[in-house]
Amino acid sequence: MSAAEARRRPILRMIAGRLGIGVFTLFVISVLIFLAVSLLPGDIAQQVLGQSATPETVAAFRRELGLDQPLAWRYLDWVGGVLSGDFGRSLANGRPVADLLAARLGNTMFLAAYAAVIAVPLAVGLGLLAALWRGSWFDRIANVATLSAISFPEFFIAYILMFWLSVRMGWFPSIADPGASPRLAEMLGRAFLPAITLVLVVTAHMMRMTRAAVVNVLGAPYVTMARLKGVSRWRVVTRHALPNALAPIVNVVALNVAWLITGVVIVEVVFVYPGLGQLMVDSVTNRDIPVVQACALIFAAVYILLNLLADVLAIATNPRLLHPR
Amino acid sequence: MMRMLKTMPPTAILGVLVIAAYAVIALFAPLLAPHAEAQIVGAQFEPWSAAYPLGTDTLGRDMLSRLIWGARNTVGVALVTTALAFGIGAIAGLLAAALGGWADLALSRLVDVLMAVPALILTLLALSALGPGVANLVVVVAILDSTRVFRLARATAMNVMVMDYVEAAQLRGEGTWWIISREVLPNISAPLIAEFGLRFCFVFLTISALSFLGLGLPPPMADWGAMVRDNAALITFGDITPLLPAACIAVLTVSVNFVVDWMLHRASGLKD
């Protein structure tokens, strides 16, 4: 993109700029994740082999892991491997980490997408209504309900749902393994409980934030002006308030979809769902560092990417943000 | 005081009462609990009875006693962590605002990086490297959570730093520490106190989640998150006992949130 073209297309320049920041953040985070290994007391070879290992075996294992190389070199080696799809080998069972991730990444994405598809329209719709009927009984009930849902630990909501819908009613399986089912409907049914848990948690956050964003816009002078002109209530909302509330709402949605990423870890453990989160927790317990690093990197990359997307979308829907003060 | 009580919404009053009850239970746990926290008193998974009001757990320990001890352990650890997070975040934020320049830039960028990734992911990463243990848990969660306190403390302190009375103090030749503690801190204490409640909820939920994942307080300490995990198998038999510790967590966070919500509402000066 030439400089002249960039001046004519501020939005492209903005996207390029944000992309640059995103890539840089990801680089810093990858260094941080990489350095986690060197936080280990002693070192990883000693850790794996145990105190009883002879110095010779430890030295040999260190060489095998490449620990005798300088730190910067090891980092480049690791990142180079990651970029070509090689995450190293698991310390626990010696299998390539990439193989462990492959099957589970799809499952986690499926669960997150499933929850997002239900939660986003629901939360934005309810948030709009709560803002429009501010102070009404609907708003008050929504306030107390969402505040409570936010305050509940995810595993509490998950187990309550499991208790009622699975154990008492027997409608859904309590262990959610989507398996390699060829039929989408069956997969949706099996993953329903974890998905609905995530929906409840995320909807509460998203709805509160949407409400706040819309209430903010409804207080703007141009909305009062439109009212005073005698514009119908519906038109005030659709033509005056909503276009201006779009940027914050887009931000809220992306933030919460990114937030699903962490919610997924706990919900997967509760429902024994074979996803990335469960793999990460298992690996933390076993102190299988290469797997933890790979999972952390993937979660971080997805999170940063979603936030980037939110930034770009928010600015695209509200050109005023192109020119910061 | 009485006037404040009268203007409190019912949710906030309820919140204050529940928090007080938790405090009493946590303080007097050794007197209230019928058994010691790690004492094996009966068979595994005994049902609710007169001897064991809430039954026994996976190892045959009294569930009610462990719930009471849990109030002390889980809430205590969460409080210590929140206080530490608050100390780190508030001091760093105030220093960044007062010193400005490079110190501000360096601290702010560091916080940006830490906040660019979900805290739970970084916590899991750090715990896998450092290994489990209460000290590691408290330090890791506190450092990651202090980023939020830092942002709030820095932003609010920045607004105060441009005031005339701060400039006057600077011209008088007062030191940075004097300005922070005597001029800035009293003026930003209201939002910081409300933030303390919010941070406590967040830290409490994070620590509960981690202990549910098996990375919390070491056994045999009674810990609500771990109690849910240990006894979760009972749920598939239609027994709600494992839900009780989770409910204890939920009730406390809801109560704190109710109180904080009211405080924020009052501080923002909104009158419906």
Structure description:
The mean pLDDT of chain A is 81. Chain A is 77% helix and 0% strand. Chain A is globular and about 85 Å long. By secondary structure, chain A is mainly alpha-helical. Chain A is built from 14 helices and no strands. Chain A has two domains: 1-97 and 287-325, no CATH class; 107-274, Orthogonal Bundle (MetI-like fold). Chain B is an all-alpha fold and 272 residues long. Chain B has one domain (35-268): MetI-like (MetI-like fold), CATH 1.10.3720.10. Helices cover 73% and strands 0% of the residues of chain B. Chain B has helices at 2-7, 10-27, 29-32, 63-99, 101-115, 119-130, 134-161, 164-172, 176-212, 224-231, 243-267. Chain B is elongated and about 75 Å long. The chains are: A mainly alpha (325), B mainly alpha (272). Chains A and B meet through helix 2, helix 7, helix 8, helix 12 and helix 13 of A and helix 6, helix 9 and helix 11 of B.
Strand count of chain B: 0
What is the overall pLDDT average of chain B? 85
How far the N terminus sits from the C terminus of chain A, by CA atoms, comes to 25 Å
CATH class membership of chain B: Mainly Alpha
Number of helical elements of chain B: 11
CATH-defined topology of the largest domain in chain A: MetI-like fold
